[in-house]
Amino acid sequence: MDFYSRLNNEILICEVCPRRCHLKKGQKGFCKIRVNTGSKIEHLSYSYITAPALDPIEKKPLYHFYPGSKVLSFGTHGCNMGCRFCQNWHITKSDNDPFLLCSAEPAKIVNIACELGCKSIAFTYNDPVIFLEYALDVTSIAQSKGIKCIAISAGYANKDAGEALFSKMDAVNLDLKGITEEFYSKNCLADITAVLDTIKYVHGKTKAHLELTNLIIEGENDNPQDITNMCKWIVQNLGKNVPLHFSAFHGAYKFKNRKQTSYDTLLKAYNIAKEAGINYVYLGNISDKATSATYCKSCSNTLIERQGFNITAYNLDGLGCCKNCKTPLDGVFI
Questions:
Q1: Which of 70, 130, 289, 291 falls 20 to 30 Å from 59 in CA-CA distance?
Q2: CB-based contacts of 172: which residues, under 8 Å, 6+ apart?
C-alpha cells in the first residue's frame, strides 16, 4: 500500500500522519525521512538504523508482556512529532544522511534477534509510524520465526497507515503525552484527536497487547485535574486493565533547563490513577519497588516485584494467574 496521494503533477501529499505534508520533488516532510522522489513518496531510512540495543522488555516499558524476556530494540531517525521535551532528540531531530547510519536489512535484524535469544523486536526511539514499511517487512520475517514485534509510538497516524502498522504488532506501548489539545498543540505541534483515535483502535480493533505511557513534566501536564481527566478517559474508553506508566521527565532538547519530575508529583499521579480504578499503574525512570510492582486486582497480592528493570519476585502460576487467589493477570505471560 502506498501512503500518499497526488495533488497535481508536481506535488504529492504524504498520507502517513495528520500533517499530510505537501511535497515537491526532492522535498522532505516534517519527519525528515519521507521524501517525494518524483514518482512517489519513499522513506530515506529504510534499512538504516540507530541505537540497536539488547534490552529487558521492562525498559520499553512493557510490564505485562513476557516479563523478564529480552528484546532487540532499534529506531531510524527523524520523527513526525514536534515535542519540545523529546527525550531522544538526538535521534528524532536528526537530519543526518541516513547512509551514515548502521545498515540492516529486515532479515539481518531478525537473524540478530534469533542469535541473541530475543523473544521480541521493538521499533522505538523515534516512531515506527514514519518507517512503517521497514517495520512491517521486519515483522513479517520475525513472526514467521516465532519472534514477537512491538511498536513504541506516539500514535500520531492517519487511519490507513495506523491500521497497517498496529494491526500487525504483538504489543504496543503508546504515549499519551497529556489529555488537553492545548498541551499537544503547544508542546508537540500535534493534534490530540488522532492520538486518542489510535489508542482506541489498538485497544478495540487489534489483538496487540497495549500499555500506555505518560511522561510527566511539572508545570506542563501535571495538573491534578488534567491527570484525573486522563484517567477517566482511559477507564471510559479502554477499561481498567490497560497498564499505565507515569514516567519521570529529565531535562532535554528545548526543555533542557527544566527540572526532573519529583517523586511527589509522580506519586500524586499514581494515586489519582488508582483512585480512578485503573488496576495496573507504574512509576518509571525512578527506582521505587512499591510503585513498580504488579498487584493482583482481586486480592492485592504482589504478583511481580521489580528492582529497576530486574524482576526480584514472581508469583504467577503456570497459567499466568495469581498463586494466591487464581485470578488471571491481564497481559501475555505464557
A1: 130
A2: 150, 151, 152, 153, 166, 202, 206, 208, 209, 210, 211
